[in-house]
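Quality-control log, excerpt.
Job 1 of 2 completed; input and output follow.
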Amino acid sequence: MEYRGVDTQTHKQLFHQGPFKQGTNNIGEFLALVHGLAYLKKNNSDRIIYTDSKIAMGWVKVKKCRTKLQQTQKNKALFKLVDRAEQWLKTNSYSTKIVKWETKAWGEIPADFGRK
């Protein structure tokens, strides 16, 4: 599992993390959203964030990654990042709007890696 943030206008990659062993798509979507929120806050940007994951949007809203994936030695680093992301959500405020990407209308979201 890996994730990245991409500017939808320029297609420039803004950040990239991974690959991580034994991750899930939902965890990657969650981490990408939190990373994006922190990135935009740090850069004083009022841009919106798109995601094609309703699950990740819900996890961000409740400030908790509700994965059923069990932590193992192989994915320990990934779960450390999840803990950091949850902590960031609990200790930071943000006004960034998160919007559902409409894949059927707009095509694959630019941040995906073209593996679908």
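Job 2 of 2 completed; input and output follow.
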Amino acid sequence: MSELNVGDAVPELRVTPDKYLPHRYAGASGDFNPIHIDPEFAKMVGLPNNILHGLYSMGLVARANAALSGGDPRALKRLSVQFRGMGAPEQEIVVTGTVKSVDGNRVTVDTIAAQGDNQIIRNAEAELEL
């Protein structure tokens, strides 16, 4: 991306996790909590269906911000997020961001990940060295 300025929108990342993503992510992360992989269990504990792992959503925020450096994850120097909503498989996740500050080659981006009106991650802040 060319020169960034405070207030610039960063490119959106749009991902639609398939229904098997929670199972694959459980295997990769070691988090086999049944609210992620068992729809019937999730409903039994009051959820509408099985939900995505929060760390998967955080990974999308990291990926969207790393795209500012051509996809190099080493550019991401700091990432903080607030998990605020539950993500669902088979619904598009849109990660958006706005440049908050620029200091030399350091850029800070405010980021949100949402499924429709449901902000699953908000108040996220990524610091990159570009």
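Post-run check on job 2. The longest helix spans residues 54-66.
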